[in-house]
Amino acid sequence: MKEAEDMYLRVLAGKEKAWGAKHTSTLNTVNNLGLLYIHQGKIKEAEDMYLRALVGYEKAWGPERKQALDTRYNLGLLYKARSMFRNAVQQFELVVQGYIKLLGPEYGETIEALNQLENCKVD
């Protein structure tokens, strides 16, 4: 996984140089780097990447764009895994609300986010 991390970091540096740190393509790489960090067990680094991507997506597109909601969902999963249930609930509540507006209440991702929300309230 070290090779993958090195590749993402090179891509990120190239996108930041070419398009800037706030460009949505750069933010996609930031989010993907967060996913990789989760798989590597680098939780703090993953959180930093998710937060950076989320802030950028919300500034670029607003909080109810699919990419912003998906990143918020990832952040909720991270908080849940760290037993930070209050933070996870906050994230999942916003995700559920956004997915309902964007995708509808019966959509699979909406239902899964609702399931994650309920699991955090029980834990």
SSE map:
Blueprint: H1 2-18, H2 24-40, H3 43-61, H4 66-81, H5 85-102, H6 108-122
Helix pairs in contact: 1-2, 2-3, 2-4, 3-4, 4-5, 5-6
Question: What does this protein look like?
Answer:
33% of the residues are buried. The chain is mainly α. It is globular and about 40 Å long. It contains six helices and no strands. Helix 2 (24-40) packs parallel to helix 4 (66-81), helix 3 runs antiparallel to helix 4 (66-81) and helix 4 (66-81) runs antiparallel to helix 5. Helix content is 83%, strand content 0%.
Distance between the termini: 32 Å
- Overall mean pLDDT score? 95
Shape: globular
Instruction: Label the structural class.
Output: mainly alpha
Radius of gyration: 15 Å
**Biggest beta sheet attributes:** none
Query: Helix fraction?
Result: over 70%
Strand content: under 5%
Tally of helical segments: 6
Q: What is the string of SSEs from the N terminus onward? A: HHHHHH
Q: How many individual β-strands?
A: 0
Q: Could you name the ranges where pLDDT drops below 50 across 5 or more consecutive residues?
A: none
Task: Describe the structure in brief.
The protein is mostly helical. The protein has helices spanning 2-18, 24-40, 43-61, 66-81, 85-102, 108-122.
Describe the structure using short key phrases.
about 85% helix; mainly alpha; about 120 residues; 6 helices
